[in-house]
Amino acid sequence: MTASTTRRTTAKSRIAAVCAIAVAGTLLLTACGDQTKNGSGPAKTTGSAAADLLPQEIKAKGVIKVGSDIAYPPVEFKDKSGKTVGIDPDIGAALGKELGVTFQFENGTFDTLITGLRSKRYDLAMSSMTDTKDRQEGVDPDTKKKVGEGVDFVDYFKAGVSIYTRKGDDQSIKTWADLCGKKIAVQRGTVSHNLAKSESKKCTGGKKIAIETFDNDLEAQTRLRSGGADAGSSDFPVAAYAVKTSGGGKDFELVGEQVEAAPYGIAVAKGNDQLTKAVQAALDAIIKNGKYGKIIAKWGVEAGAITEAKLNGGS
Q1: Which one, of 9, 67, 11, lies nearest residue 194 by Cα?
Q2: Displacement of CA 126 from its chain's centroid (Å)
């Protein structure tokens, strides 16, 4: 959920045709804040180089607690049985096996995940979070004032932001400039939210973009579906998945191109260098052994794949 800072949106890299995002499964809206302790299965001690880098306290617990807004399909969401599934949980499971621990995903609202890292509620945050300089440095994207210590990111995917409308009712919206004088529904604290605010400032003639924010993306989709907004915006994989699955593909359509492609990062609180290095090494390992590629292909988002685990690669 690329939240904060201009990025979840420009067509720098088309992630894949909408049809490629098709993944079977019914989306269930989960109350943000509930603690969903779905792990990645029993951990196996691997004796890998990455596992050797883990802090001793995490080795002893055998669990890495991962903060995530689990209502962002296909990246992380609940299946019919209530199990946490998606791109992030699958990558988390592969990282856990490499590290010899269990990745335990816990549900929380997106704009509180970094705070959860600072308070040590979570060890990591993995939730379609865009790696940006503002987040790295703990800077508020609106005021540009420092509000926290910031986080480090291990980058694991790349995506842009897309606009979508009700199907057959695009109102000639093709670009962000076309949203001036219209209402957009977005998830609060995301890059889509920040981009809407920055684009609204460019509107002329008093026709600003009316922005309505929600706790999660599924609520924003519901608002658009009911006619309460003219458009919605989210990361391309998420927007494409909604277009493909909502109402059997009859509710929404993508408009224009995705913009501001940037990396998703696994966030780690500043100062936890051992954990950061361990996660980076584990991600490089699953990229090299092919497990990462299989997960990306499973969800049909190959165009967003990365070839190495970079640290703080966002701008």
Answers
A1: 9
A2: 7
